[in-house]
Give the backbone structure.
Amino acid sequence: TRFGGNRTEPVSCLSTLVIFARNFTSFLFATNMDFKELTCRIQDRCPEVARSAWRPIQAKTESEDKFATRFGGNRPFRSSNFRWPICEECHAHKAFLCQINLEKVPTTIQEQIKRNSGLFQLFYCLECTPLDYFKDMDFVPKTEFVPSLKSLAAEAVVRNDCRIKDLPEIVKSYVADLTEDVPEAEYDGDIFEEKEVAMWEELKWKEVPNFEEMSCHNNGTLAKKVGITSEDDDIYIDDIDYDVNTILTPQGGIKLGGYIRWCQQIEYPTCPKCKLKMDVTFLQLEDDDLYNFSWGDCGTAHITLCPGCGKAGMSWACA
C-alpha cells in the first residue's frame, strides 16, 4: 500500500483498462443501434412489450341498431335512467363522442380491459375541453340493455305524439330525459355527424412505447432489458424504415389498444379512487374521418383505465 509517487501496480492498470474497455464498448453499442436492432431485441428479450392496435372501419350505412359502435351524432343508447349530460362549466349539452360495443372489439382488448360485453359511452364538452376528465364516460352493463316499462312507455308517448302536457309532472320529466332531442355537436362550424363502425381492423405494425415511456417504464427496467440508454433517443426519429420494420412507435388516428402517441410528456391520469396511474390503454382519439376534432393543434386524446378498479379516465394534449 502506498500514497503518492509514480509507481502504479499492474493490477490497477489492468482494472483501469477493463473499465475503459467496458465504457467504450457500451458507447459504441449504444450509438450504433438502429430502430430495427431495437425491435429485434424487444422481440427476443421481451416480446410482450410489442402491442397490437386496431382502427375502426366505417360502415357503409348507419343502422337502427341502438347498440352499434358509433362516433358522433346524437343517438347514444339510452338506458332506463339516462339523462343527457350537461357541462358543469358552460351548462350546455355535452357532445356525444362515441359509443363502443364491447362484444365487437378484439379479444385482446377485452382481456386487457377485463370486459367482454356491454357498451362504453363518452360524453364531453368540446368548448371547455377539460383535462384529467372522469365524468360521463361509463361502461354500460348488458343487463341495462333490457328496457324498463317506464322507458317503453316514454318511447310510446313520443312515438304516438301523445299530449305530454296532460301527463303528471314526474312522468313528463322522465319522458323528457329519456327522449330529449339534442342536436348533433358542432364546433367551429363543423357538425359531428354520426359515423357507425362496422368492424375493427388490426394495424399492419405492432407498437412499442416512445423513448421516454420505455426509458421510465418500471424505473428503467425495460430500458436495461433491451439495452438502450439516453444516447439512443435519436433512433426513434431517424432510423424507422416503414417498409422493413414490423414494429413501430405509437401510431396516430383513432385506435384501440397499442400505446398512446404522446404529443408532450407522458400524461396518464391518476385514478381519483385508487390513486393509481391509469395506464391500461383503451382508446386513442385524434383528428380522423370518423370524428374530425383536432384536440387543440394536431393533438391526441386518450382514454385509459385504472389497473385497480377499472375506472376510465381521459386527458389530452397538443403539439
